[in-house]
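[audit] Reproducing an earlier prediction to check determinism. Same input, same settings, fresh worker. If the tokens differ from the archived copy the diff job will pick it up downstream; this log only records the rerun itself.
[audit] input (272 residues):
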Amino acid sequence: MTFKSLILSVAIWGAVVAPTVAAETDANRAKPFPEVTFDRVNAIFGDNLDTSDPRLKTLLLAIGMDHTSTSSPHKREQVGVPFIVHYGAHYWVNRLAAGDASIDVLVNNALLLLFAETEIPGREEAAYSLMTAAAGSGYWPADYFIAETDLQNHLVRDPVNIVPLSNEIDRSHLQEVAQKTMAAYNRCAELGFAPCRYRIGFWLSNSQPTLMDGLTVLQTAVNTTLRDTRYQGVLDAELVSATTALVEHGHLIGLTADMRQQYDRLLKSLLK
């Protein structure tokens, strides 16, 4: 998709939403998430933020976690739904149309496309292009989105347990896609984002030569999930699958019988 057609796709969305709040001065750019009302959120996104798509739900979580992290290099960026609503959709669309390629402009326009209440031709492709540019600028939630999209569209037959299309990947250009996808997951996993750790863990554990590495990563992912309540309701399926793997194969990475019993009790509590 060309930059011109990408702008057009975003502009189609911007045209259906009236501007709400004028842009503020640069002096206010480092504020926390602004307070916005439900009515104003609903006017732009309708009910689409209450999505059942795990990829989109996890993307919103990643954006929120990055914005509230004191160590994030992007904490001054105004990325996320509250900023979109606060300034209004037209503000972000107009900045993109003017050639502004800052991270907040790229990601917020992608969010407008992904969660738009109005059907927009080519919006997934346009959002992917915007997120690719944001990932290229070092924004790790965009890394997650690109990796997750490529994984689900090209590399697996089971998007929960990450069963790779091994034969197809080995015989085609998908090797390059797989390498790029795993590199993106590694970048966000290194920052402690549990969904990326699950993806890597399941990928590795589905191959006998890397099974032990995969189980080790899955154990880390499970422990990360249990320590942070923000993951509740987002990673339930992954948590169940990873815990099952640790109960069944944890002895391979040195988990004692007592430790496996603890994971088994956790699994039973998750399945209630």
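[audit] rerun output stored. Observation attached for the diff report: Confidence is low (pLDDT under 50) at residues 1-30.
[audit] end
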